[in-house]
Amino acid sequence: MPGAVRVVAVLTLGAVLSGCGIGASPSDPIGRRYVSTEVTGRPIPGGGPLELSFPARERLAASAGCNRFTGTADLSGGQIRAGTLASTRMACPPPRDGADDWVRTLFAGAPRWTLDGEILTLTTGSVTVTLTERTNGR
Question: Which of 14, 41, 109, 137 is the most buried (most CB within 10 A)?
Answer without folding.
Answer: 109
